[in-house]
Write a structure and sequence with these properties.
310 residues, alpha+beta, Tetrahydropterin Synthase, Chain A, 3 domains, three-stranded antiparallel beta sheet
Length: 310
């Protein structure tokens, strides 16, 4: 018994690890490149180095080489470019000065510096809530994805230390809170509603950081293996109960129809005779069988008696 429980626990752990591995697997990178930015910096460095080196070429020495390297470094750090999707927060003497970019911008050496490069494209971040308890105290693992973007680079730089991490942690906390308010049976049925609630909660919280939450989508809900069998049996029992209820309702309707028919036959004997004739016809119309019936059934074929004629 202990070996079986240990085996089930190991299987559950391995399947949970495999599910997290699949959920965390990302597609092949299809990101834009920053080669142009580094190439521009390299060109600025070579330009500054070449100007100073050529100017001091007749007096070539270690000092002139150091001066050329320093000139190239200063030129590369002073003249910069930012890609179309990027903005740069520039600080002057430790205080916020401006938002530069996209495109060409200048930074005063030793006085200004680029504090952070902020991507203004729509970002997608996957997060999960492992072993989150539902309202009926069932632990579930939920994987979700959030779509968000930075609309105010100044707030993202000054209001929060690490805005991508802050968004993920806030999303994870909000997801746990949403799961804790509903039962396990309602978790899958209310997935879209939970998505909208999470978007509203995160949107209100991230607004102060200059971030807009576009949407939140739950990708996967994993129930522990020890509960899957119980849930399957519960669903099977529920379907069997519904089938029996439907069968009982059908039998009740049929019995009521029989009672109504009996009342009609009792009030009108001719209806009973017509029914007997119909049964006889149904039993012999294929021409392959012989009808065996009591003599009272033969009286039903007396048309004269049926229509009141002697």
């Amino acid at each position: 018994m202990k070996f079986s429980l240990r085996k089930d626990r190991d299987n559950a752990t391995s399947q949970a690890d495999a599910r997290r591995t699949v959920a965390s697997t990302e597609l092949e990178p299809n990101e834009t490149t920053r080669v142009g930015v580094f190439l521009f910096a390299l060109i600025m460095f070579l330009l500054g180095f070449a100007v100073v080196f050529c100017a001091t070429l007749p007096w070539l020495s270690l000092a002139t080489v150091v001066a050329a390297v320093a000139a190239g470094f200063l030129l590369a750090t002073a003249f910069r470019v930012a890609p179309q999707w990027e903005k740069v927060a520039v600080l002057r003497m430790g205080k916020f000065h401006r938002i530069a970019g996209p495109g060409f911008y200048v930074v005063a050496p030793f006085v200004e510096y680029a504090a952070i490069h902020i991507d203004h494209r729509t970002m997608t971040s996957a997060f999960s809530a492992e072993a989150a308890l539902t309202a009926d105290l069932v632990p579930v693992d939920v994987d979700a994805i959030i779509f968000w973007l930075v609309w105010d680079a100044k707030k993202a730089c000054l209001e929060v230390a690490n805005y991508p991490k802050a968004v993920l942690w806030s999303a994870q906390t909000a997801l746990r809170d949403a799961i804790g308010q509903i039962n396990l049976a309602d978790l899958s049925l209310r997935r879209k509603q939970i998505d909208r609630e999470l978007q509203q909660v995160l949107g209100d919280k991230c607004e102060q950081w200059g971030i807009t939450v576009m949407s939140v989508e739950i990708r996967d809900i994993a129930v522990p293996l020890e509960l899957q069998d119980a849930l399957s049996k519960e669903a099977q029992a529920e379907r069997e109960r519904n089938a029996r209820v439907i069968l009982a309702e059908v039998e009740k309707d049929i019995s009521e129809m029989f009672v109504e028919a009996a009342q009609i036959y009792d009030q009108n004997p001719k209806a009973m005779q017509l029914r007997a004739m119909n049964l006889a016809y149904e039993g012999t119309r294929d021409g392959k069988g012989v009808l065996l019936a009591p003599s009272s059934l033969a009286d039903s074929f007396d048309v004269g008696k049926l229509f009141g004629k002697e």
